[in-house]
Amino acid sequence: MSIKGFILVTVKKKEAKNLVFDYIDRYIEDNTASRVKGSLSVYKSLKKHLRAYEIEKKTMVRFDKMSYDFFTSFQNFLINHTTDQGKTLNKITIAKQLSTLKTFLNYAKRSGIKFGEGYKDFTIKRQKLEVIALTEEEFFKLVNLDLSNNERLDRVRDVFVFGCVVGYRYSDLSQLSRHHIKGDTIYLTTEKTKTPIITPLSDLALGILKKYEKNRKPLPVISNQKYNQYLTELCKLAELNDEIEIIRFKGAEKIVNIYPKWQLVTAHTSRKSFASMLIAKQVPYQVIMTLGGWYDFKSFQRYIKIEQDTLKNFIQTAWK
Questions:
Q1: What stretch(es) of the chain map to CATH 1.10.443.10?
Q2: How far apart are alpha carbons 159 and 265 in whole angstroms?
Q3: Alpha helix locations (H) across the chain?
Q4: pLDDT of 147-180, one tens digit each?
Q5: Under CATH, which architecture does the 2-121 domain have?
Q6: Can you tell me whether residue 182 is helix, strand or coil?
Q7: Residues 6+ apart with CB under 8 A from 282
Q8: How many CB atoms lie within 10 A of CB 152?
Q9: What per-residue confidence (pLDDT) applies to 14?
């Protein structure tokens, strides 16, 4: 018996060699059309890591071996693994690989592969990431920065500032077209989650759009790589020098680095700044989530940074 040419496997039958890897390829193929470009690269990385695990452990990776013990062994392998590029994996990358493997195994089960469920008992320990977001003061340092002699950074600044006031991902800033804009409102379906959102535009956002009204596209969006490169240059010029401590773990080893904020600002910082600045203005979470297209609070939490002054203001207001 088969599904699309794949043998249904039970623990009583000998599992075909490479079936796990064939199914990873199938998962990528089945999801390519519906997923954002590049979002499936983690499955290609998973395939490479499982192949490396096979070689080191001299054992075949099989569905019927996907147990709690396998996850423990694979996690330990990833902690000590060195990639072809000579790099080791930090705790965040390892957690992502393990959660990707779980997602893939759930897909295989739905497709008819039969194996135990012991792997579901394995708990993935996730490190909470630092949220890099601009304060309102830092935001207006960028807005008011004199770039009259630097058109390149001026255009990058406009895209970033627009992202901060509408809360869009880079992919949605990039897909924005004239037909999405109706007066002072944008009607857009997000690229990543396919969520329809309605965005009322502030005077600042409208001013940026007016600046480029003669262009074919509403915003001068460039490639993601160049955008991030120029953002670093822009934020350094604006002297966003607040020191940020970044903590990572490699196994049990704690690695601490200190960076100036300008070095950490990326395309995604605008979306995090949008949420964090609105929280500082005491806009209700439900409103921010609706504006930004966040569908649940758990995913929303990863985007917000509540500054010390905001906490202080909330408490002082609450007890007046």
A1: 136-312
A2: 14
A3: 19-31, 41-57, 68-80, 91-110, 136-143, 151-166, 170-175, 203-211, 224-237, 269-280, 285-292, 297-301, 308-318
A4: 999 999 999 999 999 999 999 999 999 999 999 9
A5: Orthogonal Bundle (1.10)
A6: strand
A7: 313, 314, 317
A8: 14
A9: 57
- Residue 276 CB contacts under 8 Å (≥ 6 apart), including other chains: 131, 133, 134, 135, 303, 304, 305, 306, 307
The predicted pLDDT at position 299 comes to 77
Is residue 30 within 8 Å of 82, Cβ to Cβ?
no
The closest alpha carbon to 92, from 120, 128, 132, belongs to: 128
Structure-token pair, residue 317: 């207001």
Which residues of the chain does CATH 1.10.150 include?
2-121
Least confident of 4-18, 176-190, 197-211, 248-262: 4-18
Neighbours of 114 (CB within 10 A): 14
Superfamily of domain 136-312: Intergrase catalytic core (1.10.443.10)
| pLDDT (0 to 100) of residue 140 | 97
State the Cα–Cα distance between residues 55 and 89, nearest whole angstrom: 18
12 and 42 in contact (C-beta within 8 Å)? Answer: no
What pLDDT, on the 0 to 100 scale, is given for residue 317? 65
Q: What is the DSSP letter of 122?
A: P
Q: Let me know: does 131 contact 272? Beta carbons within 8 Å.
A: yes
Instruction: Compute the mean pLDDT over every residue in the chain, rounded to the nearest whole number.
Output: 88
User: pTM here?
Assistant: 0.71
